[in-house]
Amino acid sequence: MEVKVIINQKKSIFDTEKTLLQNINAMGIEIPTLCHHEDISPAGVCKICSVEVVGRGLVTTCDNYPEAGMELNTHSDEVEEFRKDRIKEILKDHSNDCLTCEKAMGDCELQNISYEYGVENRGDGTREKVAIDNSSSAFVRDMNKCIKCQKCVKVCDEIQGIGVYCVEEDGSIGMTHGTVAETDCISCGQCVKICPVGALHEKIDLKNLNYDLKNPMKHIVVQMAPAIKNTIGEEFGILPGTDITKRMVAALKDLGFDKVFSTDFSADVTIMEEGTEFLDRFTNGGKLPMFTSCCPGWINYAEINHPEFLDNLSSCKSPQQIFGALSKSYYSKVSGVKPSEVYSVSIMPCTAKKDEIIRDVMEDHDGNRDVDLVITTRELAKLFRLNKINLADYEKEEEFDQLLGEGTGAARIFASTGGVMEAALRTVSDVLGETSHSLEYKEVRGFEGVRRANLVLAGKEVNVAVINGIKNATPFLESIKKGETEVDFIEVMACVGGCLNGGGAPAPDNMRVVADRKIGLYDSDEKSVLRKSHENIEVKKLYEDYLGKPGGHKSHHLLHTNYKSRNK
Question: Taking the CA atoms of the chain, what radius of gyration do you get in angstroms?
């Protein structure tokens, strides 16, 4: 239903199904807020989004709806003064270590809005200091910087369905059980990405990496996840979905990395291993359904909440870990650099990847970790800015280094929900001798919570499912346990939309932005010369020269792992 309103002395039409904030933003009028995000329910606690409703006074716009005849003033003197007072009130209890805060350099929404309104941080230091929670392997929780916006509570509960945060009686944010590590947190990082200040931030080691790159004492190789190539541009004002791969490669070499490789390569290896494993289970009566194992957030969730399904997980390591293992073995052998001297860095859109690299099964017999360091997309953007590299006007372009640098279109779509499944089907169908199906499996694409497809490949019926967002996992798993759902192969991504929306992706974002990223991603796939993992020339050479065959003894030793129950 539409109603007539007057806003800033001009007549307009508002949609009563949308909040005042949504209607005003649609007009191109910017309303500041610290607690609002369009993908979660409104909290209405920061109140900075308030506007003047003539005859009623100040009203928050994020949780109120238009009424016929409303007269609104969005930036009157009264409104502006109120917003300044609210910012001052928030800053009064806020830590004032902005110079060293991890959310500095433009990432802190409170800092940005304080600058816009000319409010200085004059905190009186009366707020009682609390201990910083470093128990998570992926991120830090510093409640001395919390502004009680409730975003972390809502995204963890409403979007992820995990619910490790709670709102205390005084409005402060608490945990359901002690520290982060004592809860059922899966390290997905959605709370980190949505936090407007430095209360939640990735565990960062940029200073040491930046030093090592400038003072080469190590042989540093880097891998870049598929999602990075179509998302990092946003950190420099480039449109979502834009593919800036070649610029990225050149920039990383300018930073000082010895070799710049692509996780697309190891994603193709993943399909060779995981696809072989599925075909073996499917044709020889193995444990079904088989679940993909690329997403560490999903692996954490399964180990904590559903250990009864651990035998159903593919034993294949994630593309990140496969690359790491090959960088310390295959690459080491070819390059002549000792495994202990290879320092393997990965750029990921995911905070759970930081958690993944320290799992006790992710190292060789000599104690060499598969991957030594993970930095997120946002951290990489900071590293570029520290070194005065602006990807928006960066003109150099280079190709990935050879040996571990080639990837197919199938590998690129790993970044989107449904992408791993589609990549696997492209290879599985070829192995089965299927010729009638098109190259693209659009049946498994989409942002629905659960997407299912019944496919006939070379006369064999294969039932597959894609679970988009960890909140949708438990109902589906329960239906399998009850015998209500029969399925052979299942992909699970902890973050809605997949890695394009990972906890380490550019922020702020929303599902509209993620949809734009997805368009760019699949466009990159369509433009790829090779679009099936088993057609990757470098992957073929890997098996011919080093691994032997997919699923073979050497592959299983290097590229596969196991899982254990962490049910609490």
Answer: 25
